[in-house]
Design brief:
The chain is an alpha/beta fold. Helices cover about 45% and strands about 15% of the residues. A 7-stranded parallel beta sheet has the order 3-2-1-4-5-6-7, with helices on both faces. α1 crosses α6 and α4 runs parallel beside α5. It is globular, with a radius of gyration of 18 Å. The chain starts with 7 loop residues before the first strand and ends with a helix. The C terminus is likely disordered.
C-alpha cells in the first residue's frame, strides 16, 4: 500500500483536466502536492484551490525539454525534497489523419506523451530506488492498447507509454525494488482535450467523467494497482486480438471505435514559453 498522507506527490500537467482533479483528490488525502505545468497563469489559478485544503507548490516546466526538467527537478529537491510519487500526466492530442499531420504535431506528440516519461522519471527515480520506496504513475490511454483512426501519432505514443511502464515494472521487480508503478488506460475523458469525441455505445463505452478517473487514479496509487483500465469492459475486449485481423477490425467497427474522432475539436496544445520564438526563427 502507498500511503500518500504526509508524502510529496508530483503531477505533470497538473493545473487542468485530470491532473488538477487528481491534485485536489490527493491533497484531500493529506498529500503535499507539487504541480508542474507549462503556463504560469494556469498554476496561479489552481494553487489557491489546492492551498484551501492542503499543501501545494507549483512550477512552470516544459516536460518535453530534458534540460528544463532537470533544472526544475533540482528546484523541487531544494524546496521540498524528492517526491515519493511521480504522476506522468501531461499529454497532447492532434486528432488528425496521418496525411494531415504536420511534422511539428507528430514530434510534439511524442515529445510530450512519450519522451517526457523518460526525462521526468529519470529525474526522480534514483532517490526512490535509494530509499526503496516510491511510486511512478503513467497516465496512458485505452488508445495505448488499441489503435484508433485519426490517432496514428497519439495512439502510437500511448502504446509506447504502456510499454514504458511494463518494462520499468519488470526492471524494478528484477532488482528486488519496492518502488511501484501504475499505468492508467482510460477511454475518452470528458475534458477539453477530447472535446467533440463521440461513442456509439455509451452504455458500454461511456465518455468518462474526469472526477471519476481522478478518483480511480488516487485509489490505484494507494492500493498499488499495477494496471488501471476504465471502463473495465476494455480489459475484456483485449482477448479479441486472437481473432483473424478482418474479424477483429469488424468488431472494432461494430463498436464505433474508428469513428469516435470524426467530430473531434479538442483544444490546441499550449505552447512552451520559448516555442513561439522557435517558430518565428
Amino acid at each position: 500500500m502507498t500511503n500518500v498522507k504526509g508524502k510529496t506527490v508530483l503531477i505533470t500537467g497538473g493545473a487542468s483536466g485530470i491532473g488538477r482533479l487528481l491534485a485536489l483528490e490527493l491533497v484531500d488525502r493529506g498529500a503535499r502536492v507539487v504541480v508542474w505545468d507549462l503556463k504560469q497563469e494556469a498554476l496561479d489559478a489552481v494553487l489557491p484551490e489546492l492551498h484551501r485544503t492542503g499543501q501545494a507548490r507549483g512550477y512552470v516546466c516544459d516536460v518535453s525539454d530534458p534540460a528544463m526538467v532537470s533544472a526544475v527537478a533540482e528546484r523541487v529537491r531544494a524546496d521540498v525534497g524528492d517526491p515519493h510519487v511521480v504522476v506522468n500526466n501531461a499529454g497532447v492530442v492532434s486528432g488528425a489523419r496521418l496525411l494531415d499531420l504536420s511534422e511539428r504535431q507528430i514530434t510534439k506528440t511524442f515529445d510530450v506523451n512519450t519522451l517526457a516519461l523518460y526525462w521526468v522519471t529519470k529525474a526522480f527515480l534514483p532517490a526512490m530506488v535509494a530509499r526503496d520506496e516510491g511510486h511512478v504513475v503513467t497516465v496512458a490511454s485505452a488508445a495505448g492498447l488499441v489503435g484508433v483512426a485519426k490517432q496514428t501519432d497519439y495512439s502510437a505514443s500511448k502504446h509506447a507509454a504502456v510499454g514504458f511502464d511494463e518494462s520499468l515494472r519488470a526492471e524494478l521487480r528484477r532488482e528486488g525494488s519496492h518502488v511501484r508503478t501504475t499505468v492508467v488506460c482510460p477511454f475518452y475523458v470528458d475534458t477539453g482535450m477530447f472535446q467533440g469525441v463521440r461513442t456509439r455505445v455509451p452504455w458500454l463505452l461511456p465518455i468518462l467523467a474526469p472526477e471519476k478517473v481522478a478518483g480511480r487514479i488516487a485509489r490505484a496509487i494507494e492500493r498499488d494497482h499495477a494496471v488501471v483500465i476504465v471502463p473495465p469492459i476494455i480489459r475484456y475486449l483485449l482477448p479479441l486480438r486472437v481473432l483473424p485481423t478482418r474479424a477483429y477490425d469488424w468488431v472494432a467497427d461494430l463498436f464505433g471505435v474508428n469513428v469516435g474522432m470524426d467530430e473531434f475539436v479538442g483544444r490546441p496544445p499550449a505552447e512552451a514559453p520559448h516555442e513561439a520564438e522557435k517558430l518565428a526563427s
